[in-house]
Amino acid sequence: MNKNIAIDVRDLTVGYGDYILLHDATYQVHKGDIFIIMGGSGCGKSSMLRVLTGLLPPQKGDVVINGTNIATASAEEVQKIREKSGILYQSGALFSSMTLAENIALPLQQYSDYSDETIRELAHLKLALVGLTGFDDFYPSEISGGMKKRAGLARALAFDPDIVYFDEPSAGLDPISSHNLDELILELNQSLGTTIVVVTHELDSIFTIGNNSIFLDAGSKTILAHGDPKELLKNPPNQEVYQFLTRGEKK
Amino acid sequence: MKSKTITSSKNLSPVQIQQKGDVLLLSFNGNIINYESQDLLKTIQNSFSRGVNHLDFQTDFLQDWDSSLLVILYEVLRMAKSNNIHYSLTSLPDNLQQLLNLAFAVDRKPSHSQSEKLPVIERIGQLAMQFYGQTISVLKYLGAVGGGVWRFLTASSIMRKTDFLAALEECGPQALAIVALISFLVGLILAFVGAVQLQTFGAQIYVASLVTIGMCRIMGAIMVGIIMAGRTGSAYAATIGTMQVNEELDALQTMGLSHIDFLVMPRLFSLLIAMPILTMLADFMGMMGGAFVGVFLMNLPYQEYWKYAFNAFNLSNFSVGIFHGFCFGFIIAICGCYCGLTCGRNADSVGLATTRSVVTAIVWMIVVTGIITVICQELGI
Fold this sequence. Notes:
The complex is a heterodimer of chains A (251) and B (381).
Chain A: E1 5-16, E2 19-30, E3 34-39, H1 45-52, E4 60-65, E5 68-69, H2 75-83, E6 85-88, H3 100-111, H4 116-129, H5 145-156, E7 163-167, H6 175-192, E8 195-199, H7 203-209, E9 212-217, E10 222-226, H8 229-234, H9 239-245
Parallel strand pairs in A: 3-8, 3-9, 6-7, 7-8
Antiparallel strand pairs in A: 1-2, 1-4, 4-5, 9-10
Chain B: E1 3-7, E2 15-20, E3 23-28, E4 30-32, H1 38-48, E5 54-58, E6 62-65, H2 67-82, E7 86-87, H3 94-105, H4 120-153, H5 161-171, H6 176-199, H7 207-245, H8 248-254, H9 259-297, H10 302-312, H11 315-341, H12 347-379
Parallel strand pairs in B: 3-5, 4-6, 5-7
Antiparallel strand pairs in B: 1-2, 2-3
């Protein structure tokens, strides 16, 4: 396998029981990419993310992440992949009974041998990286939606992950917060070299941060396009992709 | 050409239907606000079956209208389409035309969950499969809880002390007042009910024995069980269910943190500790309630009442009650957490999970009470 490939998806079928959302999906994410999974509502973007993060087993096909196929991997191997991945959920998914610092410290306490003092400092640093210096002792209920997402991102970065997944990062954010989060994603990608996978249908975000993408289609249940979103806009392979990338304009 | 004018059920209706040959003309006059259209639509449907090929509209005298006119037009056009009747919207006001075009712009035929009516045998089979699936799910969960207890005993659990202490405070000190009040009232009621019967034999002093045995052996534990199922079990289901909705459970899973260790164990252990203590409190408060009736309302001598109460008190009754409390604690924690963990991902599901946790816990408490009673009977306790 090419060492430059972070995620290799081959002939993947995604679904729940008899209900198939997507079939024969094949694509690759290169290390250091900001990879966008886009498509209309109900096309299976979030389910694709659940498969990539090991929350939903693939119905068919292979999902190879950093050389390990999660379709056939043991629980320990999946756990190792997860330790090198971070996920920012739509709502931030912060634990409401814990302060922001405790949220970030939780995976570190579980999987590292760091002392309590080091973990505290690491949590402080991760919060500083996402612009939340001084919010260590705040509870999720005391901060805004945009700040929750940043704190969720700080938690996702706790273990210096190779890959960070974002599920609809702009959802529920005002345009400025959304733009700031996009900037943050770009900075993290450039400074840490982290591979980033973003599930979104926000066109501004797609064109600002994405350098590779797939377009999922709910009708055909397949990947209709694969490539740099800006290139896809210049040379759309079909009407569906063009309409999506131009907010419904007809060719 | 013969012309026939039909008006809708009210004579002065603002809607008139006129049939000229194969053309049906609908005239809308004056204000059409809050118009009840059912009779009118039936009349139009009947007209369509009498050789109508064209539909036309007249709105020259139409003044003010609301969505009820739009409903009439939308339904009439749907009927016309299904009867292959030609129509033109040009005689309608522009805004009405726009709205109708919008309404007919997307003509999807969603194939969403048309629940098939299965034959009885297949339905029974389906129910059996559901039951089987649920049983397997519960057994897996109980196995996972067993694993969690084992990890705790072997000091490899990730249960957080702060979570345990918070859960213990919630189901211990914070529940004292309500348990004390309800148990006092139950003791009071037991004493009243018993006193009415015992008074007829002049044996009202035995109210003390009745209340003591009743509260210590079973009533104290049952009352605490019901209170805690409604108060704490439902809170567990709602909290964990909300975590499911907020994707916090997914976050835990992707961090490799066990739901059982992190969420179930603190709640289970805190209830296992709190329930026997609350049961003791309920026993005591129930006896106080009985004493209140005996001493203040039935004028039994204070010392005499407590003498009979202590004579009736014995360790085996008390132990059976405490054991009930311990079992109920286990049931409430297990049901509350299970319903939360299996909750769906929307607000409705949280409500359902909460209800299910209370109902399931109470049903299992009754079942377990029956089992313990039979075992005690067999063992002569």
